[in-house]
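Project standup — Tuesday

K.O.: blocked on the structure for the chain from last sprint. Re-posting the sequence here as requested.
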Amino acid sequence: MILTRYRAAIFDLDGTLVHSEPAWEAAKRRVLHRLRVEVPQTTYDAFVGRGLRGFLTEVMGQDLTDARRTDLANEIGAEADVLLPLLRQPIPGAAQSVIRLTEAGLRIAVCSSSPRRHIHAALDQLGLVDRVSAIVSGADLPRGKPDPLPYLETLRLLDLGPAEAFAVEDALPGAISAHAAGLDVVGIGPEHLTRGFSDYCRVQVPDYSSFDRMMFS
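H.V.: unblocked you, prediction finished:
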């Protein structure tokens, strides 16, 4: 990738900048346990990188009302408020790579399925609050990843076209979302070699050391 062709980099959060999925899975399990709802691990895995709306519809059924879905999402979010500070960990090299991109003149945005308060908390933990120009939470939108809307909204806030930015994603739903919005996608992390992920990525790297070599060499 030629860094000078871009004006911004848009990062996913969970799994891309911080390890937080264990906290979210634990929060979901706590709420569903209280409801005596059993969910197989494959269902939790299928909704990594996606918002709570689809997950709750999947496990509670199509008859779930919007009001009940909102209540359950709020319960899960409240559990995550407790668990995330305990379990969330920075992904090695992520913050340093973001800082290098800003020093190279790129604007930084975060496009995440997480609630906005959790995005801000993670960025504060990473020391990146002052480095981020725009934040989009899929929880605030009518459709989340893998729909392109979150990335289209991020581009709108940045006032950029899709050719002027690239996305960094660790999971298939986010890569589909960014690709559908017209962005070049950098796949990063353990999923970069999984089947189907490459269909939506311009390049794939295992970690931020490889990301930096690709971007700054």
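K.O.: great, moving the ticket to review. The chain has a mean pLDDT of 93. The chain has two domains: 3-19+90-216, 21-87.
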